[in-house]
Structures are given as C-alpha cells and as structure tokens.
From TrEMBL:
Cellular component GO terms, alphabetical: cytoplasm
Key word Chaperone present: no
Subcellular location field: Cytoplasm
Taxon lineage: Bacteria, Bacillati, Bacillota, Clostridia, Peptostreptococcales
Name this protein carries in UniProt: HPr family phosphocarrier protein
BP-aspect Gene Ontology terms: phosphoenolpyruvate-dependent sugar phosphotransferase system
Organism: Romboutsia maritimum
Gene3D superfamilies cross-referenced by the UniProt entry: HPr-like
Domain HPr residues, every copy: 1-86
Length: 86
C-alpha cells in the first residue's frame, strides 16, 4: 500500500519528528518504508529517515506491506499531515 503526504511542519523531518515517525512505524508488524527524493529507506530506522533530509514542502511516500499495513499507513499519514503535533 502506498500513500503520499507533503511535509507541512516548518522544521521538516528533523530529529524530533523523525523520532516520532520511527517510533510510530515500529508499533506495526507491517514492513514500512518511505520514499523521497529518489531514495527508499526503512521507516523503522532513525538513520534512514534522517538521511532523507526532508524539509517543509517535500513529498514523502509511505509504503506499507503486511498484516496491519492499512493501519500503519493511516497512522503515519496522520502524524505527518498533522505536522507532528507542532
């Protein structure tokens, strides 16, 4: 399952939001990857997420596969779309 979302928070996907994203992704059994700027990384890896260097306005594609893929996709979309609670 793939879902696209635009980074809306002003600071982009820096340390705190990246940590929140990885923590949320780890709650699910499904494999979760994100694709941006031509790179695909494991969404459960803080180093992978940070390596993307995503800023406000960048597109992020959330790719989930497995038992709870829909729940994982929806939860991560909501986290990013909701500006990580900023």
């Amino acid at each position: 399952m793939e879902k696209s979302v635009i980074i809306k928070n002003t600071s982009g996907l820096h340390a705190r939001p990246a940590g929140m994203f990885v923590k949320k992704a780890a709650e699910f059994k499904a494999t979760v990857e994100v694709q941006a700027k031509g790179k695909k990384v494991n969404a459960k890896s803080i180093m992978g997420i940070m390596s993307l260097g995503l800023a406000q306005g960048d597109e992020l594609i959330i790719i989930t596969n497995g038992a709870d893929e829909e729940a994982a996709s929806d939860a991560l979309f909501e986290l990013v779309d909701g500006k990580f609670g900023e």
